[in-house]
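Private note to self, pasted from the team thread so I don't lose it. C-alpha cells:
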C-alpha cells in the first residue's frame, strides 16, 4: 500500500505595498556601520549629526540616524531587556536621542531576526514586542532588521517570509497598543527573493549582500537592480544598501572609489529610489564627496512626492539587452518624474567612451518633439535635444539629465518613419511562382 502525502500551499494574494502610514518615500539618513563598524560611541554619533546639520544635509532630508550593530551589552538584564553599553553611551541612549533631535535628526534602531546580531549582540527572536518597546523608549521609530543567527527550520517552522513576518506582526501590535508605528527595513540580503514579498510586510528590503567601497561591488549591485527596478514604488523600496560615498582611504574597510565612481554610485541609488544612508565619517570626507551627498537635484527626484517608481533600463549597452553581467550593468536608463523625463547614462567600462541614444528609445519620450535638457550634476540648462543625445563619459562615469518638452521638432527633421524598420515596402507587382 502506498502512502500519499499532501502538501497544502497557502493562497498568496497579489503583491501590494504595506501602507501603515510610514515610508511612502525612501528614507534618508546616516548609518554608523560603513564608517565605524562597532567602533562608535555617543561622541562620534553626535559629531556626525552636528556635521550633517552644518553642511546642510539635514535640511536636504537626511534626518534618520541608525545606530547599527554593537550599541548594547551582550547580555540582557534580569527582566530580559536590552541594555545600552554604558561605556559607549555614558548618559544613556535617551540623552543622545534628545541631543540629535535638537539638530533635526531622529535615532533609529538596528535589530536581528535571530538569537544574536551579526556581531554577537542580543537578537530579537522571541522578544520582538519587548525590543520594540525598548527602542521606542529610546526615541526610535525606524528599524533596520538583520538576518544572522536565525533559529533552525524545525524550531520556527517558517521560511524567511515567516521569520520576518514575526517582527512585522509585532510592529502592527505595538502600533495598535500605543498608536506609534515603526518604519520596517528588511536586511535579508536577497536570499529568498524579498523583492517579491517584501512589500507585504515592510517599507524596504535588501536584494543584495553587503556593499563594499569598490567599483566591482557597486557594478554588481547595479547589475542586479537592472532586473529588479520594477519593485520600487510608494511605501515599498528596493534597498541597494548604504552609501560608500566619501570612503576613499577611510571606512571599514577603506575604499578606493574615484570621484566619477562616487557620482555614478549616488546617481544610481537616488534615481532607482533606494533609501539613501550616508556611511562615511563626515568629519573626514572630501568636499567633492560632500557635494555629491548634497546634490539637491537628485535628492528631489529620489523624494518625488507624486511619482514613486524607479528609473528602468531601455538599453544595456556593452551587452545584449537583458544580459546579467556583474561587471557591466545596464548603461541606458530613463523614467518619469514630477519634474520631467530623467535619463541616467552609465559608462561601465574602464576607459572613456562615446555614449549616444535616440530619445524615443525611452518609453517616456514623445516622438516628433524636441526637449530642453537640464544637467543634474552641473545644475545648468545645457541646450535643446532633437532626436538624439551624445556625450563622452570617463571610465565608470555617469550623466544624469532631466528633459522637458520644448515643442515640435524643427521641420527639417520631418520623415515618413521614425525608424527604418518601421517602414514597409509596398509591392505593386507579384510574379507568379
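Design output:
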Amino acid at each position: 500500500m502506498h502512502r500519499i502525502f499532501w502538501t497544502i500551499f497557502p493562497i498568496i494574494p497579489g503583491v501590494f505595498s504595506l501602507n501603515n502610514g510610514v515610508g511612502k518615500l525612501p528614507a534618508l539618513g546616516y548609518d554608523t556601520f560603513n564608517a565605524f563598524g562597532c567602533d562608535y560611541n555617543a561622541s562620534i554619533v553626535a559629531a556626525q549629526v552636528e556635521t550633517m546639520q552644518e553642511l546642510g544635509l539635514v535640511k536636504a532630508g537626511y534626518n534618520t540616524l541608525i545606530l547599527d550593530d554593537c550599541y548594547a551589552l551582550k547580555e540582557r538584564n534580569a527582566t530580559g531587556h536590552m541594555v545600552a553599553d554604558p561605556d559607549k553611551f555614558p548618559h544613556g541612549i535617551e540623552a543622545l536621542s534628545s541631543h540629535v533631535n535638537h539638530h533635526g535628526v531622529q535615532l533609529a534602531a538596528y535589530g536581528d531576526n535571530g538569537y544574536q546580531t551579526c556581531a554577537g549582540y542580543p537578537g530579537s527572536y522571541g522578544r520582538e514586542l519587548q525590543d520594540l518597546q525598548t527602542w521606542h523608549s529610546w526615541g526610535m521609530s525606524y528599524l533596520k532588521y538583520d538576518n544572522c543567527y536565525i533559529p533552525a527550520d524545525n524550531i520556527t517552522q517558517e521560511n524567511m517570509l515567516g521569520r520576518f513576518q514575526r517582527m512585522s506582526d509585532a510592529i502592527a501590535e505595538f502600533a495598535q497598543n500605543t498608536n506609534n508605528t515603526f518604519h520596517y527595513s528588511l536586511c535579508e540580503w536577497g536570499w529568498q527573493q524579498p523583492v517579491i514579498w517584501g512589500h507585504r510586510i515592510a517599507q524596504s528590503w535588501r536584494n543584495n549582500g553587503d556593499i563594499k567601497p569598490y567599483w566591482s561591488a557597486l557594478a554588481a549591485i547595479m547589475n542586479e537592480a537592472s532586473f529588479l527596478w520594477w519593485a520600487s514604488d510608494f511605501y515599498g523600496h528596493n534597498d541597494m544598501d548604504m552609501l560608500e560615498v566619501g570612503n576613499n582611504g577611510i571606512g571599514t574597510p577603506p575604499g578606493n572609489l574615484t570621484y566619477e565612481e562616487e557620482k555614478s554610485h549616488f546617481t544610481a541609488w537616488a534615481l532607482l529610489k533606494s533609501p539613501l544612508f550616508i556611511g562615511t565619517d563626515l568629519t573626514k570626507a572630501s568636499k567633492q564627496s560632500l557635494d555629491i551627498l548634497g546634490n539637491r537635484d537628485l535628492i528631489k527626484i529620489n523624494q518625488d512626492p507624486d511619482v514613486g517608481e524607479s528609473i528602468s533600463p531601455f538599453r544595456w549597452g556593452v551587452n545584449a539587452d537583458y544580459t546579467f553581467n556583474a561587471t557591466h550593468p545596464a548603461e541606458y536608463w530613463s523614467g518619469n518624474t514630477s519634474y520631467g523625463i530623467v535619463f541616467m547614462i552609465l559608462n561601465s567600462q574602464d576607459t572613456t567612451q562615446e555614449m549616444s541614444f535616440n530619445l524615443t528609445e525611452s518609453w517616456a519620450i514623445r516622438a516628433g518633439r524636441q526637449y530642453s535638457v537640464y544637467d543634474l550634476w552641473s545644475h545648468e540648462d545645457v541646450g535643446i535635444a532633437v532626436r538624439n543625445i551624445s556625450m563622452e563619459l570617463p571610465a565608470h562615469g555617469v550623466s544624469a539629465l532631466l528633459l522637458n518638452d520644448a515643442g515640435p521638432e524643427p521641420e527639417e527633421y520631418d520623415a515618413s518613419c521614425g525608424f527604418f524598420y518601421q517602414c514597409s515596402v509596398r509591392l505593386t507587382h507579384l510574379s507568379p511562382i
